[in-house]
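[RESIDUES AND BACKBONE]
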Amino acid sequence: MIGKFKNKMFNCGMKFFQPIFKESLENELQQTDLKKIEDTLIEIRWEQYKLAGRLVPIEEVGGAIGNEIEDYWTNHTVLDNWFLTAKDSIEYCDRRFSLYPYFREYAEMDREHDNEIILDYGCGPGNDLVWFSSQNKLRKIIGMDVSRTALRNAQYRLALMGVDSLNAKLVHINDQKSELPLEDGSIDFINCQGVLMHTSSPQAILKEFHRVLKPKE
């Protein structure tokens, strides 16, 4: 009797939850299909930018020596999201900043940077490159990173913003070489968020920051 009662209860439960499970599965499949379509459209757009010469070239500096740090960040790129439109890309930056109140203010990312040359050291997939480019009329923005995978995304997102090689530069750097391929006093502002603690020579990099920054008037 108890066994039959359990079976009846199980069957009743399945009849009740089956429509819910079905709807949930259909929604999940629909989301999966939409994601596949979006990914395909992004790939098409990437190829279009490539053929049109709209991607900012990635310069190689320091040779392809590589080490554990570079390998890790190439295989574990932070927040490596690809977007279909420039609007989506910028809105993602806004959502990201909303998680850290006053972050932009303390990092001086919200002050006016018009006509400046900005270095984003450890730029990753280009979140801050996108933000600076969308908020200011920059003379130039330079993104440097040890991960070529991340820089490839940055290429695409800058192209979405309509930023070309006249106004941007991307550099694939080597963690084992701290020297920056920049002239003395050539940079107005350096953005470097959550990066130095992951490098092999943070003190040497800070010295390089001091060298390339324009002296205060």
Observations:
- The chain has a mean pLDDT of 85.
